[in-house]
Design a protein that fits this description.
Elements lengths: L23 E8 L6 E8 L5 H14 L4 E5 L8 H9 L3 E5 L9 H13 L7 H16 L2 H11 L7
Parallel strand pairs: 3-4
Antiparallel strand pairs: 1-2
Amino acid sequence: MVRTWAPRGRTPLLRHRDRRDRISVISGLSVSPVRQRLGLYYQWHHHNIRRAEVCAFLRHLLRHLHGRVIVVWDRLGAHRSAAVHALGRRNPRLYLESFPAYAPELNPDEGVWRQTKAQLANGCPDDRYELALALIEALESFRRSQPRLRGCIKHSGLPLLRA
């Protein structure tokens, strides 16, 4: 829930233009198995994310992360596509696992988005470009904060971090 300002007793009226502009983001948290260092990886697009973007993101992770890359994600249709599973079979370092159905509370990335959306909630960008700049600034701030990233993983209850 996000609060906004309005005179007492008057419901706020928000005006906007529906131009069908959009920004879609695919993201993920990484945990270094040895140093327990956390990372945030993301890619944004001006259209809905489909299997091609999911495959590109997985290749991005494989380029930047060393050793085994274990991806645990929700059951979005694009995550379960034949192209994504073929990419997993071609890359022996890549392991794809799914969260149980209807269990977003287990996904630490949901915490990243809950906090990022709260940070952007009362913004009023004039166009998609301004929204993209605000989004990147928020995500980069999040990426630099080990305590915030650690909090998302701890809140999920997953045993990814040593005590």
